[in-house]
Amino acid sequence: MRAKSPDISENTVFLNLPYDNGFRRLYLAYISGLIHLGLKPRATIEIPGGQNRLDKILDLIRGCRYSIHDLSRVQLDRIHPITPRFNMPFELGLAVAAAKIDGLPDDWFVFESTPRRISKSLSDLGGTDANIHDGTVGGVMRELVSVFQRQSPDERCSVPEMMKTYKGVSSLVDDILRETGGKSLFEAGVFRQLCFAAGKAAGIPQTR
Question: Which domains are delineated in the chain?
Fold first, then answer.
């Protein structure tokens, strides 16, 4: 039986990103850039652990109007046992399948740091152009503008202004960690506060 299509929040973006300190700057860039553009980031770190986690991830993906999948860090880690990271391509697969099953537009976007690598790492996406951010904050902002200016033209689409929002959020990271008691940026409470801070820096206050 076909699953019932969920109610979709039009301004929400599911973020499929690696959660590690090496990705910290780009993580902040995605949050800051999306909120600056009037969009609401969602992420699996908001989902509590326990049973049915996969169902909850799928519900979250299906409830978002857009999704971004950053495959720039799908590589072998350095911790024994040496293992490739499959979460990001797996969640991309869920998003692609959900769009097809629900009969929705393919409003999912693949981001990468290296040109042409996606054609080798995930050849099934042949014909899909990845957004290449070069592994930089400015590159993430540029590609977010490229994607969402096409989807919904907005006078707020300015990379220099988005960079100001990013810098404002970055300056508050230590305060946010201290106030939340968070041990890393990749926790639900910290994520919410980062979104709130980004909205404030961009002049778009967020609900706590």
Answer: 9-202 (3.40.50)
The string of pLDDT tens digits covering residues 43-74 is 999 998 776 889 999 999 999 999 999 999 87
- Helix H, strand E, coil C: the string for 2-54 is CCCCCCCEEEEEEEECCCCHHHHHHHHHHHHHHHHCCCEEEEHHHCCCCCCHH
Q: Are 43 and 18 in contact (CB under 8 A)?
A: no
Phi, psi of 11 (to 5 degrees): -105, 15
Q: What are the DSSP E strand ranges found in 52-115? A: 64-70, 108-112
Distance CA 146, CA 157 (A): 9
The pTM assigned to this predicted structure is: 0.91
Give residue-wise pLDDT tens across range 75-85: 777 777 887 77
Q: What are phi and psi of 66, to 5 degrees?
A: -130, 165
Q: How far apart are CA 159 and CA 147, in angstroms?
A: 13
CB 35 within 8 A of CB 165: yes
